[in-house]
Specification:
Glutaredoxin; 8 helices; four-stranded mixed beta sheet; globular; 56% helix; 194 residues
Amino acid sequence: MYTLYGTKSTRAFRAIWMLEELGQPYDHHKDAPRSDTVRTLNPSGKVPVLVDGDTVIPDSTAILTYLADKHGMLTHPAGTPARARQDALMFCLLDEVEGLVWAAARHSFILPPEHRLPAIKDSLKWEFEQNTARISNRIEGAFLMGVTMTIADILCAHLTMWAAQAKFPAPPQALTDHMTRMQARPAFQRALAT
């Protein structure tokens, strides 16, 4: 059984959702970032952290990829063109969406007050609009890559939700529709209820 550390208000939600999609049993410890327990597993203190036997995996994207590969679900096979496209989409989402929302969070409440630059958020929101417009044009069907759900769908839907909570501009309708479809999934609903 897997053990997952992190509250669902963090990136740990992605891992919770993934475990629910896979139907895998897990023990969920709702430890906050930088708790003593988390720091023993991940010196940075960041969550989520997944423990699988003697293996400790920090970082939500690494956890999604590990679980998808291990269970052969929600991913395209390694070494295939489809996997390369999936990985490119994941990296794009991390660089062009998550990076912006995370920078806004750092300048809102994470950095010490004397290091925050609130004015930067306007440029981050402008860039978010440009980037999500390009990403929405890549949607190929019910899921980002067509008829097959992948871990990129989990990441994208979570980022769209996170951006809305951070008061970023609404993304293009295609991304909003994608998020709505993903939130209707039973596994999402189970993850939300944890």
